Amino acid sequence: MDNLELLLQGFATAATPVNLLLALIGVIVGTAVGVLPGIGPAMTVALLLPILGGLEPTSALIMLAGIFYGGMYGGSTTSILLNTPGESSSVVTAIEGNQMARAGRAAQALATAALGSFLAGTIGTALLVFFAPLVTQFAISLGAPEYFAIMLLAFIAVTAVLGASRLRGFISLMLGLTIGLVGLDSVSGQARLTFGIPQLSDGIDVVVVAVGIFALGEALWVAAHLRRRAVEVIPVGRPWLGREDFKRSWKPWLRGTAYGFPFGAVPAGGAEIPTFLSYITEKRLTKHPEEFGKGAIEGVAGPEAANNASAAGTMVPMLSLGLPTNATAAVMLAALVSYGIQPGPLLLQREGELVWALIASLFIGNTLLLILNLPLAPVWAKLLRIPRPYLYAGILFFASMGAYAVNGSSFDLILLLVMGVLGFVMRRFGLPVLPLIIAVILGPRIELQGRRALQLSSGELKGLFGSVNVSTGQFQLSPIAVTVYLIILIVLLWPLLFALIRKALPAKAQEALEEVHEERIHPPRADDATAEPPADPEARERTRR
To answer: What is the CA 540 to chain-centroid distance, rounded?
Structure first.
């Protein structure tokens, strides 16, 4: 059946009154948590996992997808009005957006962010309709060696590419794999890391891990750095764009979309790289270079479009390969697992109605977000005045109730506390949480595929690089597996390769390459407690508070 017909069927499912209501609730909640600093869509999705257990899988995922997209929209509000990005993907937006707000152009900054997000999200979702089935058809032809190599690439990429330290990324990955090993071995039945505790025989539920690491850990971390005074919010008028602002915005919207979607679809690509590349591109192509650093609208339009296009690209590997490329996608995969649905290349075949309804809901949610965000921007800004103690007390309460509701066991509350403390410690020492949650979800799957590959080769390591031809009985290397291993090698050796490339380039090209590399490895973090205080006295005072 044609993809368009399947999409129309998806619209028929997503447009039911119940699913429309859930999509509306999702985008409202997502926008609200995106606006509030320190509360991202990943934490909110993790909190809602236990609560949504009574819903149908399709309805639950439609609501979670609305939260995902809404969080991307809402993050720009905080960046523009407070210069405090709630998500790392909104860091670049704060550079020009807050300067526009200080110059009395907060309404225009919010308008170009909302319109750019809508355009990029719509185009990105349309590309998802085209690419997801193609990737799925390709993935079905893969065997155990190829799957093992691809998931290994996801592990290496998320630890070596994201974050400032590879060592910290690998430590987080090892912690996640260790948690994933807890329980009975699926083949031998031998207990692993249970320490004689019967409740650990079935392993640690991924929902408890997600709620503890994201919600409880983040709440404890932010509470430890709680501001004592209410924040000062820049007044917001009715968002609108004049003809000149629209003329300067539409090209950055399209260029940002072109950057964001491919990076979102690449394992561990994320939104940080395309948003920064979009900003650099607009800075070099603009006809108003004197405005950059003082509030250039192109510096808001391009990165925000890249941010939302990246969110749409994230859905490609998540739905077609079962590989998450950011924290929110990882928790959404955990939702699939909690419903007993196996993510991977067969998801589109076995759960086609769910997948296409989810994709259709992205179009609906994107439209709802545009309708809500333009007129209600002043309302979202008022959410920033909610006292933080009330906010995080509520998060702790719902996290505890949700964890208990998973299995109805008080032991899960102990595990929740342990995971929350672990999440707090990881943030304290700069360990990224994304590698851990991805390792917990994909760890059992990569173990299964690795075992299958080795069994087919009678335990020889060459089984990870190919398989035995059934007709001839000869071993054949897999071009896909070998290619993926070469990519892994390049990623691991990138610091050495970067040094060699830098030496071979002219002086100006070296400066540009170093600028991109430094911003990628050490992106500006306005909400980082360890960041250097801003030079502006008013901004320094806000950071101190």
So the answer is: 29
